[in-house]
Amino acid sequence: xxxxxxxxxxxxxxxxxxxxxxxxxxxxxxxxxxxxxxxxxxxxxxxxxxxxxxxxxxxxxxxxxxxxxxxxxxxxxxxxxxxxxxxxxxxxxxxxxxxxxxxxxxxxxxxxxxxxxxxxxxxxxxxxxxxxxxxxxxxxxxxxxxxxxxxxxxxxxxxxxxxxxxxxxxxxxxxxxxxxxxxxxxxxxxxxxxxxxxxxxxxxxxxxxxxxxxxxxxxxxxxxxxxxxxxxxxxxxxxxxxxxxxxxxxxxxxxxxxxxxxxxxxxxxxxxxxxxxxxxxxxxxxxxxxxxxxxxxxxxxxxxxxxxxxxxxxxxxxxxxxxxxxxxxxxxxxxxxxxxxxxxxxxxxx
Length: 350
Fold this sequence. Notes:
Low-confidence stretches: none
Helix content: 40-55%
Number of strands: 10
Distance between the termini: 31 Å
Number of helices: 11
């Protein structure tokens, strides 16, 4: 079986890469990182204009009605560009959860808004709902500080809660990655009746979660590939002892070893995305293991390639730290590698 890209998928990849290179360069990323809010208000609309926000949304709702292969392509390019957007949450997990519900016109309106890049929904899995009330705090929620609504999931049931509802407090959190901000959201005994029920079921929730894990793996892979690229470019220019450092065996070995570890992840990514698109039950093993392996490899890769830069690799002025931190964020979100491997082992071996 061929897990390479088809010609339309290659065109999609090239189109996204070209857009990100032209409109979301590293200077724009740095401005977002250095800002107090960490918000880029324009980028979601721009992604919507490019069709990136609606890849997994039906065509009659303004989307492209494509699959996980295409979403993984977009996530990988977004990671390669370190674009300041939580693609896995806003444009994979949220629309798939909403599409799996039965919210009628409200469901359709939400998906149309997401496809256009004008509606931002933050999903909360295993929301603190008990006895008809939402009460408790949830940590590290992507884009929570400026989300239009929170999508609360509880045992497969979905509830849409407007972000301006009384009793909700949002506190920004500092994490390793300034390109994608997160927050702690505290619900102070909010009546569940204030939220709008969107139906939902446990099976569609699980599939949405697996899709988001694939997107995070793709993002980490893109960051690792970009880290290797800029390290190699630096090694071809930087001189020490009147020699290009890329001519030193130690530097060559670092780059070669990173390439050998990173390249096989690409095939695993395409295969896992294909398993998701086929609707196979094997996805419950493939997605968590892909996310665990890809983020482990990406973290090791960016750690190694940072060393090519020497001491400046850890400074704010060097772009390498952006991808180092990006991979670290991907590693922790929606399950760290140890937890995900234990989860799969429990399923496979009881």
